[in-house]
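Students often ask why we bother encoding 3D structure as a string. The short answer is that it lets us treat folding as translation between two languages. Here is a chain of 267 residues written in the first language.
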Amino acid sequence: MVPVPALSRCLVAVGLVAALAATACITSPMGRQQLVLFPESEMATMGAAAFDKLKTDLPTSRDAARQRYVRCVADAITAQLRPGEGARSWEVTVFEDASANAFALPGGKIGVHTGLLQVARDQHQLATVIGHEVAHVVARHSNERVSNQFAAQTGLQLAGSIAGGSPQLMGLLGVGAQVGVLLPFDRAQESEADLLGLDLMARAGFDPRQSVPLWRNMEKAGGGAPPEFLSTHPSAGRRIQELSQRIPRVLPVYESARAAGRRPACS
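And here it is in the second language, the structure alphabet:
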């Protein structure tokens, strides 16, 4: 039998989660309902801490040309974010790692592995990946994931973390390892990031049609099986089908961007 004081504390925690959930349902940029419990300022703090830890754990590329190239693409995309869609300034780092991987974190942090530059063969294909990752931040997918974890694991320690007791929340985010805010997103979130990322790259003046060959390259890089970056993503066939269906809708956005002078020349 659960002691009465412990049971009371548990009920308080459950009640807190229920009250928070009732007031924290929002609609994603693609129209999907999300549970978002945490203030974005808290997520930004956690994202910055995770990024700082990664910079101590992973070697940074010393190739200045690579750093400039990736920053050129990332800056063009983040420049198109509207107020409230992300940080005002973004830190971009290229990590010396052979995996075809990239990520973006709350708080304006973007990381790209050198292995991705062997798969994304031009600025448009790299923009597909960076746009996808920035879209995760715009759509608050990290906040949604942590909120869902929080709601599934009620308790006073977790309840206390939402009030600013960072150690518990840091544990949920997995800061100190490539987990937490860097864990794979679920397939609904990945599909959203694909389509929203397509919009972002088109607004920046990158050719959205290059998204299809990029994902074909990613599949080939895994020798017929998806590389680590795609391990929990939708199948290549489904992804390409969804992108192909949306490309005609964003081509006018791309053409308007080009007409307005947004013609990135990153190399």
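Translate back mentally: The beta strands are 25-27, 33-35, 91-95, 102-105, 109-113. Keep this in mind for the problem set.
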